[in-house]
Amino acid sequence: MSWSAGVLRDVLPNGLTILVQHMPATPAVAIVTRVQAGFFDEPDPLVGISHVVEHMFFKGTATRGVGEIARETREAGGYLNAATSYDYTTFYTVLPVRGLEQGLAIQADALQHPLFDADELRREIGVILQEARRKLDTPSVVVHETLHQLLFDRHRIRRWRIGTEETLGRLTREEVLAYYRQRYVPSRTVLAIAGGMDAERAMALACRHYAAWPAAEPVVDRSPEEPPRRERRARTLRGDVRQADLMVGWRGVPALHDDAVPLDVAAAVLSAGRSSWLYRGLRETGLASAVGAWNYTPLEVGVFYIGISLDPDRMEEALRGAWAAVARLRADGPEGDTLA
To answer: What is the mean pLDDT of residues 183-204?
Structure first.
């Protein structure tokens, strides 16, 4: 049976897509809003602005002051959070089933009527700058984003996604508000509700809370196309750390490409569980303290990664071991029990 069996779906006249699924015997309900706006949508002078918008959604509306969105959610027995990625931003709250109507009211207000108060914006950018500094002090994050810089010459995935002190520091309220109005529109938004609530009632409540959101034509600013390239590139970064992080990557394919699922399987063969090739070749032999492979597939581009944590003195051995697993996968592929 398909996981989506029983999902109710409606598209409002303003373009908003609503998905509702009843999950029997579940005492909670999740309300998830996903907007098709993220780091890929940002022009170079505005790098990091999607993350700023995410933070500002919890900083007040015309009817709810600063802190009231979080406070009202807690009083309804729930919690909320948000995240920004390369091609989407998501906001979610999880509450007891009895809190569905209150949760929808809060989320709808936050999405449709953010104030973007100038003073709060300055304070929140300060918070984000601290987050950016922590990332710069985290080797695994630095090596991850450095890999993107090496793999891509034009596409926006190559940029430091959270933004820099220079770009974030000069953002104005007018720029943040304009970016929100251009991209956070109903036709680029999906509202998903799942849990133990009555599905028909949830759909009716959602339609009521979001029907008045005005339709708007989104401003789409696509990332530059990436030309093909085959040569190898490498970069070594040194710092005051004892454990090294090694990352190897290849350009992959977007999420809906026919090769996406085979690459997901390849990543599982390489690193899913103790029988995986990289675990046996690098972990069990003591070459690495951690190893993993991932196939990351946003909607525009893709990246296939192998990441290894290890003693810096064993870098060459580990790299040879990882390459042996990749060469085996390329030449022979998985067989029998491994593929199963």
So the answer is: 97
